[in-house]
Amino acid sequence: MNASNPACIELTKQPQRNSVWGRQSLARQFFIVGSAFSFGAMAVVGLFVTHLIENAVTRNAAASTALYVDSIIAPVLPDMASSEILDETSSRALDETLAQGPLGQRLKAFRLWSPDGRILYSSDPAQIGKQFTPSEDLQKAFSGELVAEFDELDDVESAAERESGLPLLEIYSPLLQPWSGEVVAVTEFYELAEGLKVDLSVARWQSWSAVAAVTLAFFLTLSAIVFRGSKTISHQSRELESRIAELTHLLSQNDALKSRIQRAAAATTALNESYLRTVGADLHDGPAQLVAFAALRVDSGLLSDPGTSKERREKEVSIIKASLDEAMSEIRTICTGLVLPHVESVSLAEMLEELLNSYRARTGKTVELRNRATIKALPVAAKICIYRFIQESLNNGYKHAAGLGQWVNIAQYDDGIEVQVGDAGPGLSQLNSGGSGIGLAGMRDRVESLGGTFHVAPAPAGTIVTMTLPLHNMEAHRHESDPRCGR
Fold first, then answer.
1. Residues 6+ apart with CB under 8 A from 23
2. Sheet with 119-122, edge to edge strand ranges
3. Which DSSP string do the residues of 432-468 spell out, in sequence order?
């Protein structure tokens, strides 16, 4: 995977939130919109429920009052189906009935209507005989419906009642002919409704309280669910952003490691050629010259010439043998540096002991082992890299520092191993000034090809070469070596 992949970049983009509304969380947006919607719904439902309750209370009060008035008024009225006006006796009886007792205390005004909109009787004598255009409420009453309105005195004939400022219940009650059920007249009366006003206020308060309580409970329950969900989403978003950042970092590291491996692989090819040239040069300048010298001595003819004395022949043979022995010794020395021990079957401590003994036998120098890590399972590739690193570092120390004060330190940390090789020579500048630099470059590429680090630094006396290798990405029981850490 590549960190520059557009899909990966797209994951890390944050949504643009330019507006004030866009910067709000989803839970807060829900709370604002939900509050407005809930208050609107509460107002609509509250008005509707309150209207129904007011109508029901008003109608019930009107029905009971109308029944009471009809029970008192009906006996004193004549047959309204045959009479278009009230006689004096009926009018006087109504006056006395409406002026006395509980009915007189409850009623503010009373009218008796004919179907054509004429007032047959009124508690206000000035209105008797007048004719008005029938109102909508009056028409409903003549159709047989009981009509009641509280504090809505908008009829033309109700001017005096409006000016009184009292809470009045206006009631239109149809009068029915007993045997036919036909509506023959309508009574209109206004009841003092102080108690009804209180009842309606209580009903309004109770209905609004109930609607508000239900709406608030419903909204708060939904808000709690939404806020909890929003909190979960925010937590998951933070975790996702963290995972994306971690993934981006890992992809970046992967690209860096990929680049290092590619560079190391390319450098390894060149270094292998350099090693081959170095080995070829060593063989050409050393053993090949000695063998060629021996061949020339053989070709000189002294051994095959019958005139050569025995002493001369023996001397010549000893010279040729000495040249060949020296050539064999140099070949063994070169092979000692090229051939690895059986690192698959030995532990790190055994491999280290064999390496230091071989170095001491070849150079006569003793290396101080300051610390050794006890790692039971070490990958073969790591063993080979450690072996070559120590071998090359000791050889450089012998070449540039005459093997003075050489030491090796191996330490284990959390998920890796650190190896240091130091000496008490002239220092880093002298180390960098001689040779072709193939040894240091080879060590660096060998270590970095396995994901490790390589570092050369001056010490108070001498030079310290350090390498680290991570072991968590290697197979602990792998039985084949990495070709980049071989030669």
1. 17
2. 119-122, 107-113, 183-192, 168-176, 147-150
3. HHSS-SHHHHHHHHHHHTTT-EEEEEEETTEEEEEEE
Q: Per-residue confidence at 480, pLDDT binned at 50, 70, 90?
A: very low
Of all helices (H) and strands (E), which one includes residue 222? Answer: helix 194-285
Both tokens of 216, joined, read 């608030």
Residue 454 has pLDDT above 90, yes or no: yes
C-alpha distances in angstroms, 365 versus 23, 400, 404, 406, 474?
A: 73, 14, 8, 8, 34
Q: Is the dihedral of CA 195, 197, 202, 206 positive or negative?
A: positive
Residue 14 confidence (pLDDT): 46
Residue 474's CB is within 10 A of a number of other CB atoms, namely 19
Cα–Cα distance, 356 to 335 (Å, whole number) = 16
Strand 462-470 vs strand 453-459: parallel, antiparallel, or unpaired?
Answer: antiparallel
Residue 484, pLDDT > 70, answer no
Pairing of strands 119-122, 407-413: unpaired
Q: Could you read off the pLDDT of 16-59 as tens digits, one per residue?
A: 455 777 777 777 777 788 788 888 888 888 788 877 877 777 77
Positive or negative torsion for Cα 138, 140, 146, 149:
negative
| Partners of 434 in the β-ladder | none
Neighbours of 394 (CB within 10 A): 26
Spatial distance between the Cα atoms of 76 and 96, rounded to a whole number of angstroms: 10
**Chain-centre distance for alpha carbon 8:** 16
**pLDDT value at position 244?**
94
Whole-number Å distance between alpha carbons of 353 and 375: 15
Write the CB contacts of 274 (distance below 8 Å, at least 6 apart in sequence).
436, 438, 442
DSSP class of residue 172 equals E
Q: What is the pLDDT of residues 372-387, one digit of tens each?
A: 766 767 888 888 888 8
Token reading at 248:
């981006």
Cβ-in-10-Å burial (0-12, 13-18, 19+) of 106 comes to: middle
CB-based contacts of 428, cutoff 8 Å, min separation 6: 456, 457, 458, 463
pTM over 0.90? The answer is no
Q: Residue 482: pLDDT above 60? A: no
